[in-house]
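Give me the fold.
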Amino acid sequence: MSDSLIASAPTPDDVNGIPERRTLQPAFAVVEKPLPVIQRLYNKAWLRKLLILIVLAAIWEIYGRYLHNKLLFPTFTQTIDALIYNIANGVLPARAGSSINVLLIGYACGIAVAALLTIIAISSRIGTDLLETLTSMFNPLPAIALLPLALIWFGLGKGSLVFVLVHSVTWQSRSIPMPAFWESAAR
């Protein structure tokens, strides 16, 4: 018999002198001790992350007050005030909408160019060679490297941003290797 288990002694209720089969009880019971409040709070990931954000905001505020230069490094409270003010008067939502509009135009044009190149590549071997050559030329080129050229060609504004987005979307969509099954099915 194991040292950690204790059998119960026979009782007068045993039948025919044969002890009744009893379940064995563990010698040591597991005691559940509740965690302290601080330990329970520490186990919450959202609370730890919130604490990190509060500490970072406090450091930001202290450093901003130390510099005392609103243009160089505004305090956290000045930044929150400006955020609330610009959301309330509609400036920030309008500018966010304009940015999303440029992104959607760039993505749509990039997908259209990628689809056109894919159709050409599926149609003939020359198209496949063209797409492979263009992809090997443009895929390694980061889009941000084209930004100075785009600014020269299209100037400041939406045109240069759309050009960079089209480049990113077009060549990224073909950089994912196509399974051999789909390649053979496309031919």
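The mean pLDDT is 83.
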